[in-house]
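Hello,

Following up on my earlier ticket. Below are the three sequence lines again, exactly as submitted.
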Amino acid sequence: MISFLLSRAVQAIATMLMVTLIAFVLFRYVGDPVNQMVGIETSLADRAKLREDLGLNDPMPVQYARFLVRAARFDFGTSYQQKESVAVLIGARLPATLELSLISVVFAIAAGVPLGVLAGLHPRSLAARAFMALSLLGVSLPTFLIGILLIFVFSVHLGWLPSFGRGQTVQIGGWSTGLLTASGWRSIILPAITLGLFQMTLIMRLVRAEIMEVLRTDYIKFARARGLPDRIVHFGHALRNTLIPVITVTGLQIGSIIAFSIITETVFQWPGMGLLFLQAVQNADVPVMAAYLMLIAALFVTINLAVDLLYMAVDPRIRIGRAAA
Amino acid sequence: MTDLLTLTDLVVDIPHRRGTLRAIDGVSLSIARGEVLGLVGESGAGKSMIGNAVIGLLARPAHVAGGEIWLGDRRIDRLAPHQMRQLRGRRIGMIFQDPQTSLNPLMRIGDQLVETIRLHRPMPAAGARTEAIRLLDEVGIPAPEERMAYWPHQFSGGQRQRIVIALALAGEPELIIADEPTTALDVSVQAQIIRLLKRLCADRGVAVMLITHDMGVIAETADRVCVLYAGRVAETGPVTEVLSRPRHPYTVGLMDAIPSLDPARGEPGVATLRQIPGAMPSIAARPSGCAFHPRCASATPDCARVRPDPRPAGRSEVACPVCAPTHEDAAS
Amino acid sequence: MTRVTRALDSDLMYSFRRTPGAMIAAALSCALILGAVLAPVIAPHDPFDPSGLSILDNFLPPAWDAAGDPRFLLGTEDQGRDLLSAMLYGLRVSLAVGFASVIFALILGVTLGLIAGYAGGWADNLIMRAADIQMTFPAILIALLLAGIFRGTAAHGASGAGPLALLVFSIGLSFWVQYARTVRGSVLIEANREYVLAARLIGISAPAILIRHILPNVMGPVLVIATINLALAIIIEATLSFLGVGVPPGSPSLGTLIRVGNDYLFSGEWWITLFPGAVLGVLALSVNLFGDWLRDALNPRLG
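Thanks for your patience. The regenerated structure is below:
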């Protein structure tokens, strides 16, 4: 077990190194930092001096090391576009993205698991087949299209829910939350569903497949042969065996949700990190891109590692191993 | 006294896209109370399917398409699902081949035992726990009180099968269907488990339908044996008689094929390995008349036309009008 | 039995004929592909011909609406272009980029998989490490990043084959891993078989062995992956175009059309977004359905 953890940790570090390297190359070599900072009139001599002062003529490993150290201190430089510290920009947008992601995950699990269980226990029922057909929509339609459709129905046509922004937010310390106001909640519903729909259908299909798989096992057959009623077989035995892979997949999907928030935030003009990143891509604002990349990578890697640990904690076969017979 | 289990002309069909396959083609057998009946045959002969049919756990789309199954004086093949469920564990128990997969890996064995005990014999949790420990001890698990909290993967294969037996007996059934209970175990452990099963059932007066392809297990454990071929019964009779004086040509072939170190059999000085030429037909291509006739050395033209009914011969019943002579007759 | 009748009678075709969903999906996909291929022929107008355009024709609703114009069946967009024609050409771009990306990913992934499986050693290690690292991130993120990088380095607002090729490259690069892993697995199994050892003994070179002997045996699962990935590629391209970092403005895809229309959703010109959206949805859905069915039908366990 220790060796497994170690290899995962090594992989995590390797990933981070790779990503930071890419981010550094991006940062340093895509576009010209000096040109971004000065006006057209600045003389060549002044530019050269600036280059020297910024340490842009130092050997690459040195620059890379400096980059890493600064990144560790959350100093990501200054945005080309907005002339502000990247860290500050991202920090201001972080709560919006995290709240949206959280509500999406809650929605995906709260809707996906029960529907999946239903579809798995009674696969031939009308409800199950209808849900599976609808789930295909959730998996096939691109996120932005779902968002647009929801906006069209609920904002344009029915006028029930707003189509952009976070509504009213409340500032608690450094965190601005939209979850304490009614308008905040009304604003988060459509984006959360849009963002979470793909995950929800994924979870639903996974739970269904897992339950059907488990119901085919010998131990379920033996449980039935002992006379255990369906209710206990389904919820006492089958369900708990289903949940482990579901936990794993769901955990891994959290990172995906944060990445997909780029799209949802664009459709709903949600002022989060994703929208910031997209604007950076459109304007070739490299410092922001590089910083976002590293943050996301760190997040992914951490989540993956956490899921591995959780998996170990939950499955007794891995936790305890074989005792003397 | 009526037999405990009676199968009359049981038919099990499996609908398939190219037609319907008849897996069990009119099988009749009976098990008396407390008796051990061995159900023997090659893979694909249909033994497991008979077991599944009796306990009502045939995997869809297989289903009972004809015949009757009687438990005591109650017909059970047409029961509603919830009525069938009440029989399982309490009157009929079943144990399966692979102890590795028979126990829920995410549930402590103590919990699995207590759950089953309380289902069939309502009692407070503490009482069920005591009973579970007693059962574990009876099946030979050392330090049972400690082991209640263990997970299945912490036991060896043989121990897991013992726990499976304990679980099957927890409901105090009258009949246990044992589907190849030792096939997946180490040879050294097989004998222990089969003897344990036999002893526990004899102590409790529980009848056993012992499904296996291993003649050795039959010889040691069963009172009577039923030989299956291609979904039909070839021969049924007391173990001593069928094994020492097989009558049906297939049974003769089976007994002959058992390797023997006895130089008296076969040609002097030469130990030969005999086999029945050909192979058992698949249920999709059953020969006409007697299913064995293409491989039978004593077949007559009639054998290809008329399906033979079981007829009494000695203390057995044989489905063969010709009936191969026994070894004693040939040797004398 | 001839090969055709044997193929038609196979389990695969049997499953196909019994699954109405698969048949509908296949039919829809074919219809859309046909529409895209024949776009220059069947489109009522040429959306790229400036002389045929009149800005006065813009924002016309679909023909069945009172204010509509029978010349423009599904209405016009903000520049006065016929929406139906624009959609047909957009479908063309979407499908072209989708197919090209899948083919690129397939070639790249299969090649790397073959190398990793056959050569083993440090090559295998390197490729698999890279795969692991890439798998940590969703495809869309990688595609977005690459698209962004190319924007930063290449000339802004360029049109033509260059940016399209880069787009195909970005999208394809985001999902080569599945192919590589599958092929590598198959190669590891096949490479130990007698026919490969025999070929090596005769002296056939490694690439020849890989291509002529091992490759045919590993292509089955690869094709299933490709079918499923096609839907993914189409969606990624549409998303990138919607976000404004996809196809260059000169060759709008369905995603581009949706983005243009999004601006006018609230002012009432709903058709500019919804019709391309519907076509994109149907396309993605039918390709996905078909891929799903294909994977289930070829899965031995579920039989």
